[in-house]
Amino acid sequence: MTSTFDGRAVRADTSVRSPHARRAALASFVGSTLEYYDFFIYASFSALAFNTLFFPDLGSFWGTIVSMATIGIGYVVRPLAALVFGHFGDTLGRKRMLVVTLVMMGVATSLIGCLPTYGAIGVAAPILLVLLRAVQGASAAGESAGAASLALEHAPAHRRALAASWVNTGAAAGMLLASLVVLVFSGLPEDAFLSWGWRIPFLLSIFVALAGLVIRRMLPESEVFEEAVSTDEPKEMPAKVIFRDHWPSVLRVVGCGLFAVVSTIFSAFALSWGTHEAGVSRTVMVGATVLTAALALVAQPAAGILADRIGRKPIFITGNLVCAVAISGFFWAVSQRSTALILITACIVMVAGYSLVNAVGPALYAEMFETRIRYSGMAISGQLALVATGFAPTIAAALVRPGPNGWIPVAVFTACCCLVSAVTTLTVRETYRTSTTDLGK
């Protein structure tokens, strides 16, 4: 099979399909749901409660900034964890590492729900919070890359983008689930919310983890991966191969990945700024997240289908451009405290824009690397890209200014990240007509 299909070759390749393709997509979806449920639960409570519970002596302004910075801690450990998970994922198998990441995430998140607060044990409370956040970050470093690799490698060539899109559709499901839970518990009286209400959402993550664990243990490795590791070629450390031979792809993924700042700006910073500074009700801000996450469950698979038909790059670039333009409208709507405008502009940013990029990203990144180093390549480059994402709420909290137009520097920062992502994508090779076995070569 040649690396570029003609029409007849595409149809021939569609018959090459793993019997476990749907289960692989489901396993990726469930694992990603847990990962992002935990992520958005943490981001939401960083915005709503952690400054009071874990950093009360810093005051409202600095307490919020430091609370937001703990989100970034989870991203700092990711590149190192990506090296570890990527290495063993490419040598021992994707499935084993994905079981480990699922257990790590479920345990760490549940333990956050058990933490004593600053008022109970003093400075040890924020230290333990940061340590558990680091474990969450390490788990996430291996989760998305492994899940995308597994789903893509089990899928037929003409459905790779759709299969890989279920990883980030799981992210939308996790956001939706987390937002609904936050909506319920943040509606409690303030004393109940700060004493026990914030803990329950963290403890609930153990149930999603158990469901994902059952599905993943039943899933075999892909035939593509088994063939790649069974060859008699000399084996080199995947990380060595990546930085020696594939460093341009690493740089491209880092540039493309800047679009993800939209997610943490929307889910963490905007929630905090909108409720504390702009005076919008907590219900409206969380409700916007619920609405956009629900619509993304439809929009992202649709974007994956479209990317399999016309290519990854047009969809990815279009979504970035929509986000770059629409983010200002969203912040303006929040500053106006108009519920209708907030919901409409939130949908434009997160559904018409972010969903397109988020759906196509896993396939776009995974297809830059060949099978024998795909897990490592995606994990390392993807996590380097996400360092900026983790600290985006902190940067935004420092950039925002008092007054009705104080959001403008934050919108400019977000738009610049999306534009860099779009421009970088222009340098990526289009792969939607490339055979799975020829990817990354």
Automatic annotation (TrEMBL):
Primary location group: membrane
Assigned keywords, A-Z: Cell membrane, Membrane, Transmembrane, Transmembrane helix, Transport
Entry membrane topology: Multi-pass membrane protein
PROSITE patterns with a match to the protein in the record: MFS, SUGAR_TRANSPORT_1
Compartments where located: Cell membrane
InterPro entries: MFS_dom (IPR020846), MFS_sugar_transport-like (IPR005828), MFS_trans_sf (IPR036259), Sugar_transporter_CS (IPR005829)
UniProt name for this protein: MFS transporter
Domain Major facilitator superfamily (MFS) profile: 24-433
Native source organism of the sequence: Rhodococcus jostii
Origin: domain of life: Bacteria
